[in-house]
Amino acid sequence: MTIGVWILGDQLWIEQAALQSCQDKVPVIMIESLHHVQERPYHRQKLVLVWSAMRHFAEELREFGYPVTYKLAEDFETPLQEWVKENQITELRVMTPNDKPFTQMIEKFASLHCKITLIPNNHFLWSVEEFTTWAKRRKRLIMEDFYREGRRRFQILMEGDKPVGGQWNFDKQNRQPPKGKLNTPSTKWFEPDEITQDVIVHVKSLSFPLYGDVEPFRWGVTRSQALQILDWFIKNRLPEFGPYQDAMVTGEETMWHSMLSPYLNIGLLQPLEVIQAAEKAYHQNQLSLNSIEGFIRQVMGWREYMHGIYHFVSADYPEKNWFNHTQPLPEFFWTGETKMNCLHQVLTQLLRTGYAHHIQRLMVLSNFALIAGLSPQAVENWFHAMFIDAYDWVMQTNVIGMGLFADGGILASKPYAASGNYVNKMSDYCKGCVYNPKERVGKNACPFNFFYWDFLDRHRSQLQFQGRMSFILGHLERMSQEELEIIRQQARDWHVQRLG
Ligand SMILES: Cc1cc2nc3c(=O)[nH]c(=O)nc-3n(C[C@H](O)[C@H](O)[C@H](O)COP(=O)(O)OP(=O)(O)OC[C@H]3O[C@@H](n4cnc5c(N)ncnc54)[C@H](O)[C@@H]3O)c2cc1C
Ligand code: SF4
Fold this sequence. Notes:
By secondary structure, the chain is of the alpha/beta class.
C-alpha cells in the first residue's frame, strides 16, 4: 500500500492532520488550480498570499525530507490523477477541508482509482463533532456561553473554575471613540522575496477578473514571518488592544488590531499558540486585562464559534434571506468611488491591502448593505472576493449571519444596524464627508440615516420580536408620518438613481 497526501492552500502546517496520520515521509502533492480561482473573483493579494505561502511551504516540506510534487494546473483532478498513477498511490489522504464545497468536490472525484481518506481537521480548538455536541445541548447558541466553556476547557485566563479578574467580559472598557491624537503603533510588513515576486508576476499575467492592487504586497508568507507578526503584535499592540478596538481613523488602516487572520486562516499560525502567547504576555508583563481578555475573546470565542456554527447549520444557510433583500450591489463596492466618505475610505483601503478591521467590516460595509437592503448573496460574494482572509467557513457566518442578519438571528441577538450617528461617534470619517451625519432627510442627509430609518420601518413587524430592538422601534413610532414618507421616498430614489 502506498499512501500519498494532498495538502490544500489553507492547510500549511507541518503538524496538519493528514501528514501526522502517516508514519513515514510519504509523497506529497500541492496544486495551484486556475479553474478554482475563477469560480469567483478574488483580490490579487489573496492569490499572491496563498500561492506564495504554498510554494514556501513546499520548500519547507522538502527540507524536512518529504518528496513534494508541486503543480500549476487548470484543475485539481487531472494532476492528482497523473501523480497517483506515477507514484502508484493506493490511498490518498487529505485533511478534511474547512470549507464544505471543497469537501463535496473531493467526494465527487471519480477518476483517481485509489482510496480517498479524509482525515479530521486539526486547525481549530474545537472539532466539528465537539462543537456539535455542545450546540445540541443548547436552546440558543450564544457565543458568550460557548466562549466561557472554551475558557474552562482549555484553562485560559482561569483561576480554578473562576475567570481571572472575577469577570468574563470587559467589553464596556473597550468601546472608546477615537478622541484627540492617538499614538497608533506602526504596522509590520515584509518585502516580497524571490518566490513572492514570481507569484506577483504570475498573478499580473492572469487575464480573468480579479480585484485590488497586487502591489505593494507586504504580507508575510511563511510560518517564520507569521510568528514574527505574532511576536510584534504581542509586544506593540496587545497591551492597548482593547480600548480602541471599535475606533476608525482616516489613514490608520489597522489601529491596534493583530492582522493575524490571514495567517491563522491558512495554517501558518494555530489558534492555541496565539491565545497562549497573549496569556503569557499578560502574566509576564502585568498587562491590562481588558485588552488581553478582549483579544482572547476574538480568537477563542468568535473565531471558534463562527467555525462551529458554519458546520452546524443546515445546508441552505448560504441562501438565507430573512428580510427578503434583493437590491443589487452598487458598482462603487468594486471601485471605492462614492461620496460617502466612510465607505470611500474603507473600500479604497481594501483595494490597496485586502484588509479592513472588524468594525470597518461590520459597522460600515455590512451595516450599509443591511440597511440599504442589498441582496445577502451578492454581498457575501463581494466580501469573499475582496478580503485577504476570506474563506467559505468564515464568510457565511460573518456576512449572512452577523453582518446581515439574513439567518433571522441564529447567531446574533439583533441586527447590527446603525445610522450615521454611530459612524460619526466611532470615527473621524464624517468630518471629511459631503453628507451631514446629523441630517435624516434632504440633499445633505447622510444616506446611513435615511436608510436606517427606512430599514426599521420596512421591517418593523419582523423586528418587534427581537427584544433588543424595542427601544429604537419606540423612536420610530414617535416619528411623524410626514417625515417617514420623505425618508421612504429618499431611500427609494437613492436606489433608482443609483446614487453614491
Ligand atoms: C462582515 C464581516 C466579514 C468578515 N470576514 C472575515 C473573513 O473573511 N475572514 C476572517 O478571518 N474574518 C472575517 N471577519 C471577522 C473579523 O472581522 C476578522 O477576523 C478580523 O477583522 C481580522 O483582522 P485581525 O486579524 O486584525 O483581527 P483582530 O481584531 O486582531 O482579532 C483577532 C483575531 O480574532 C479572530 N476573529 C475575531 N472576530 C472574528 C469573527 N467574527 N470571525 C472569525 N474570526 C474572528 C480573527 O482570527 C482575528 O485574527 C468578518 C467580520 C465581519 C463582520
Ligand atoms: S456623513 Fe454619513 S456617509 Fe458621510 S462619512 Fe459620515 S456616516 Fe458616512
